[in-house]
Amino acid sequence: MRAHQSEFLRTLADRGYIHQITDAAALDAKAHSGIVTGYIGFDATADSLHVGNLVGIMLLRRLQQAGHRPIVLMGGGTTKVGDPSGKTETRQLLGDEQINVNIASIKETFRNYLRFDDSPTGAIMVNNDDWLSGLEYIPFLRDIGKHFTINRMLSFDSVKLRLDREQPLTFLEFNYMILQAYDFRELALRHGCRLQMGGSDQWGNIINGIELTRRMEGKELFGVTTPLLTTADGAKMGKTAAGAVWLNEDALPGYDFWQYWRNADDRDVGKFLRLFTDLPLEEIARLEALEGSEINTAKVVLANEVTRLCRGDDAAKAAEATASATFAGGGLGAELPVFKVAGDGIALVDALVGIGFAASRGEAKRLIAGGGARIDGAAISDEAAHITVKSDVRISSGKKKHGVLQPG
């Protein structure tokens, strides 16, 4: 395969971001000869994005680092519809007020990854509600709907998955792909956008936007998708037993975010360093070649670099210091989760639930029975155990989750 001329596509290829490109040679030539404006859309279904969104955020960062212009498209309009891609059930719909709150909160995350200014390569954030909510239904059907066939729409994986499982797919969700295609056209007209990027499940939606804009405006657009990202054990990226790994500090404490990366599977370290950090490829190759216990050094580097980008240098240093105090010194790091205990003490099962290490008393009992519950480093196997809390007490779930019980 011919080597890419543009720094942008070379970087994406070298770091493992590319799954599909609509016309690699033409996009490469355009990115080599001038500034390309590209976008990724993010629906505002919560007040924080999560690790599953991080590949998209880093794609926009790579675009800007290579001298191009990123657009963050917030789905203020499409969030009201719900993207069926990758979903097996209808998503809860949100109102305008909550969507706007979510967008304001999410915006702060992007400031850590992108440079927002008025320069030719300065990032911008736009909201598709600006054009979608003003659409009139009949004119939209007449002017835009005629370019989409039901036959083709039924062939997309996001639709077939629901139908094959005999799960409901609302007409509202069925229209999502048309609205996303319309977004691409609007961004091409308003901001000169020529590129849409996204996960592999967005390929059909991206193609729709390219074809719609070609038919209506005669403009050449491009698409790039990334591989479906899973961990080495096959789990979906960013999902843990405790739930999503949120990017915002108020949604997930810095230490927990740092620890997620520190606990990465040995086999994932190199991949994660390439995708989620700015470390040079030569340094990444050295780190991922470490063997035995030395791979833990690479994991600390991974955790520090990802946390530094997402949360800032102070957050990374604080999280590493907490880990060092907790694991190496056997002490209590300042960033560990804390649960206040009223009175002189608490049942171990209630402490495990209260601090978030178990979702229920039954789950807590199973954790204890399996030897996973520890108090100040000592395994506790008695389900009826009671903890006296007159000063700080360290409570642990396994070897990697730790917290502090404090007198309340």
Instruction: Give helix % range.
Output: 40-55%
CATH homologous superfamily caption of the largest domain: HUPs
Unreliable segments (pLDDT under 50, ≥5 consecutive)? none
CATH topology of the largest domain: the name is Rossmann fold
CATH class of the largest domain: Alpha Beta
Q: Kindly, what is the distance between the CA atoms of the first and last residues, rounded to a whole number of angstroms?
A: 64 Å
Give a written overview of the molecule.
The protein is an alpha/beta fold and 408 residues long. It folds into three domains: 220 residues, 3-Layer(aba) Sandwich (Rossmann fold); 76 residues, Orthogonal Bundle (Tyrosyl-Transfer RNA Synthetase), CATH 1.10.240; 70 residues, RNA-binding S4 domain (Structural Genomics Hypothetical 15.5 Kd Protein In mrcA-pckA Intergenic Region, Chain A, Roll), CATH 3.10.290.10. The chain has 18 helices and 15 strands. The strands form four sheets. The protein has a six-stranded mixed sheet with strand order 1-6-5-2-3-4, sandwiched between helices. The protein has a five-stranded mixed sheet with strand order 9-15-14-11-12. Strands 7-8 form a two-stranded antiparallel sheet. The mean pLDDT is 86.
Structural topology:
Elements: H1 7-15, E1 20-21, H2 24-33, E2 37-42, H3 54-65, E3 69-74, H4 96-111, E4 124-127, H5 129-132, H6 137-143, H7 150-153, H8 157-164, H9 171-174, H10 176-191, E5 195-199, H11 203-217, E6 222-226, E7 239-240, E8 243-244, H12 254-262, H13 269-276, H14 281-288, H15 295-311, H16 313-328, E9 338-341, E10 345-347, H17 348-354, H18 361-369, E11 373-375, E12 378-379, E13 386-388, E14 393-397, E15 401-407
Parallel strand pairs: 2-3, 2-5, 3-4, 5-6, 9-15
Antiparallel strand pairs: 1-6, 7-8, 10-13, 11-12, 11-14, 14-15
